[in-house]
Amino acid sequence: MSMIEFRAVCKDYQGRRVIDTLSLTIEAKERVVLFGPSGCGKSTTLQLIAGFVTPDAGDILIDDEFVATAGKNLREPGRRGVGMVFQDLALWPHMTVAENIEFGLRAKKIAESERKRRVREMVDLVGLGDYLNAKPGELSGGQQQRVALVRTLAVAPRIVLMDEPLSTLDEALNVQLRQEILQLHGDLGFTLVYVTHSRDEATALGARILYFRHGQIDSTAS
Ligand code: ADP
Ligand code: MG
User: Fold this and answer.
1) In whole angstroms, what is the distance from residue 202 CA to residue 3 CA?
2) Would you say 157 and 82 are in contact if contact means Cβ atoms under 8 Å apart?
3) Which among 2, 5, 22 is positioned nearest to 216, based on CA atoms?
4) What distance in angstroms lies between residue 55's CA and the mean position of ligand 1's atoms?
């Protein structure tokens, strides 16, 4: 049983093909990197997995079930078990660390005692146990990125999509956060699809690297 499957997926914008007959299979708990230059369709591929973008042709399956087909989303984003982490964090500035992490749990109507337990688990995973009541503005950039990571992970998504989440960080912090992402993946066991145009990040994070070019996987690249 595969976690994510694309069958000859195409997506056009203004008559231009940005995803071109893309087929791929990602297994449960795999750690896959989509690597390639700007504009080659990496982010669009994540949007297709998440369900924010609908394919113009082909099929997308999650857990062997059709979630999208040509021109039609069959399962809405909120019901795909997918979490996303972006480059710009979009933490709520007026909320504490705890409230930021709890936000998605509330939306899922998880009971308060379980919410508290999960918030505690998440901050402990990234060493921020002393910062539950801090506001994002009081944290360093690295700490804020850690909050953004575990905020997404708190709802226990089965698939986690990361779109260049570390590209604004300095080199030392970038290297450190890579290790923490690997650790989180090992501890929590989600399927990770990680997008980057950095070869170093791709090598560090990808158990498998898919080389993207012009909306396709370039099987000759390495
Ligand atoms: P990457 O993430 O690899 O840099 P994208 O998937 O963001 O690439 O974009 C692939 C191509 O599709 C680019 O040429 C981009 O300009 C175009 N594109 C992406 N999203 C849209 C959109 N919503 N409307 C029009 N063109 C888009
Ligand atoms: Mg992109």
Assistant:
1) 21
2) yes
3) 22
4) 14
Give the tens place of pLDDT for each residue, 10-46. 999 999 999 999 999 999 999 999 999 999 999 999 9
What whole-number distance in Å separates Cα of residue 172 and Cα of residue 162? 19
Q: Is 38 in the pocket of ligand 1 (CB under 6 A)?
A: yes
pLDDT tens, residue by residue, 104-155: 999 889 999 999 999 999 999 999 999 999 999 999 989 999 999 999 999 9
Give how far Cα 158 sits from Cα of 20, 79, 123, Å. 26, 11, 19
Structure tokens at 140: 């360093």
pLDDT at 221: 83
- The ligand whose atoms approach the alpha carbon of 16 most closely is 1
